[in-house]
Design brief:
Oligomer: single chain
Distance between the termini: 85 Å
Strand order of the largest sheet: 5-4-3-6-7
Structural class: alpha+beta
InterPro entries: Integrase_cat-core, Integrase_H2C2, Integrase_p58-like_C, Retrovirus_Pol_polyprotein, RNaseH-like_sf, RNaseH_sf
Strand content: 15-25%
Number of strands: 14
Organism: Synaphobranchus kaupii (Kaup's arrowtooth eel)
GO molecular function: nucleic acid binding
Number of helices: 13
Protein name: Gypsy retrotransposon integrase-like protein 1
Largest sheet: 5 strands, mixed
Helix content: 25-40%
GO biological process, one term: DNA integration
């Protein structure tokens, strides 16, 4: 439970705890954070007994951390700065370097930290010229907006005339720390120590590309909640938790949510059960209904079932359990009485050849009498064979009205005119039967001709109306 929001945690078995700790601490996105931050990162997504001791032992025994971790020392208490509530209304800036020259020529890092959300930004620089710093600040302000205050130390690039003119132009108040006392901007100084430590660890593997590793290091810092706020910088700025490697590991774990209903019980079907299948009713996938009932043949995998669908192109098909619903048959509350058919006992008469002897005739008659149901003259039915008609999928049996082509409209109009003005009873083929028609509109659509017969002749009427 965090901030009144209930969270689901994944239970990690003891054999898998080292693997999760490797992602949370040793991985590039873990950035070798301390015990508290690594423990907080674990508690946000996983649960395991003895997690605190496991994290402490893992972090303290980390070879990289032991080689580069600074020695703790006592510091004098500082006067706290006022709390800032608006993101990027006050920012702190500092320069880190010179560092080993990267393959792209970068030697310095411009650090910008938001005092409200603790959200950090780092910009690799080739030099610490004021023009380059001012240009990078304008690019940053285009994304987060203009701040009200900028807190820096007494470094020359920050105290230059170009920087003062830029702050005056943007109506930004420039605040400076006292000489030889950078602790005034302690938030940025602590971040610089964390950044240097993490870069030193990552540079052990690839010292020439540390500028390319900066985004990954920043991700690890932005993801972990801060002790002063209780939330991560990413959450405070964007209003949501970032999706990281631990989330991918949690999502990749086989969950038991598939194929379950609201009560948490998995839906199961047995062979022979009757089910309804949710399938589209037309070419539009948004229109679907439950068809069936069909019979379940067997279970395929964990959440799939093979269903028999007689009368379809594919007599059997595999469906996910979420597309199936149990068919509840209604109990029959009435009975149907069928007429009793009298069983005939008289001998069945069949034609016999003249060449048969009397004994052969008697044997044949006995055979016919014993198999009376086969040699019966009455029509019956059999279930030994069956015939199925398979139509093409998607082909309509009944055609809808269609538009008359322009090339045929004149010929059809002439034919209609000839039939409408034909005298009643004309034509030898009709005799006393007049063919009447109803002329449909030769517009955007045309229906098939509607014919009707009227005996007697002499009276014309429209098809579908009563004769006068």
């Amino acid at each position: 439970m965090k901030a009144g929001v209930q969270q689901e945690l994944l239970l990690v078995p003891h054999p898998f705890i080292p693997s999760v700790l490797q992602l949370a601490h040793t991985h590039l996105l873990g950035a070798h954070l301390g015990v508290e931050k690594t423990l907080e990162r674990m508690k946000m997504r996983f649960y395991c007994s003895g997690v605190k001791k496991a994290v402490e032992d893992y972090c303290r025994s980390c070879p990289n951390c032991q080689q580069v971790a600074p020695q703790p020392h006592m510091r004098s208490p500082l006067i706290p700065l006022p709390i800032i509530s608006v993101p990027f209304s006050r920012i702190g800036m500092d320069l880190v370097g010179p560092l080993p020259r990267s393959s792209r020529g970068h030697q310095y890092i411009l650090v910008v930290l938001d005092y409200a959300t603790r959200y950090p930004e780092t910009i690799p620089l080739r030099t610490i010229a004021t023009k380059g710093i001012a240009r990078e600040l304008m690019l940053l302000f285009s994304r987060v907006g203009l701040p009200e205050e900028i807190l820096t130390d007494q470094a020359t690039p920050f105290m230059s005339r170009i920087m003062r003119d830029l702050c005056q132009l943007m109506k930004v108040t420039q605040l400076g720390t006292s000489v030889y006392h950078p602790q005034t901007d302690g938030l940025v100084e602590r971040f610089n120590q964390t950044l240097k430590k993490m870069l030193k660890i990552t540079m052990e593997a690839d010292g020439r590309n540390w500028d390319q590793l900066l985004p990954f290091v920043l991700f690890a810092i932005r993801e972990v909640p801060r002790a002063s706020t209780g939330f991560s910088p990413f959450e405070l700025l964007y209003g949501r938790r970032p999706r990281g490697l631990l989330d991918l590991a949690k999502e990749a774990t086989p969950s038991n949510h598939g194929g379950t209903r609201r009560g948490g019980e998995r839906t199961e079907f047995a062979p022979g059960d009757k089910v309804l299948v949710l399938v589209p009713t037309s070419e539009c996938k948004f229109l679907a209904k439950w068809n069936g009932p069909y019979e379940v043949i067997e279970k395929v995998g964990t959440v799939n079932y093979q269903v028999q669908q007689p009368g379809r192109r594919s007599p059997t098909k595999v469906y996910h359990v979420n597309l199936l619903k149990k068919w509840v048959a209604r109990e029959v509350l009435f009975s149907i009485t069928t007429p009793q058919v009298a069983v005939k006992t008289e001998p069945v008469k069949v034609p016999m050849g003249e060449q048969l002897t009397p004994s052969q005739r008697q044997d044949l008659q006995d055979l016919v009498n014993r198999n009376r149901d086969v040699f019966s003259a009455e029509a019956g039915h059999t279930d030994l064979i069956q015939h199925r008609i398979v139509t093409e999928p998607g082909k309509r049996v009944k055609l809808r009205p269609y538009s008359i082509p322009e090339a045929r409209r004149e010929a059809i109009a002439a034919e209609w005119y000839r039939r409408m003005h034909r005298k009643p009873g004309s034509g030898a083929a009709h005799g006393n039967v007049d063919m009447l028609s109803q002329r449909e509109a030769l517009g955007s659509w045309a229906a098939p001709p509607s014919w009707s017969e009227l005996r007697g002749g002499g009276v014309w009427q429209r098809a579908g109306t009563k004769p006068r």
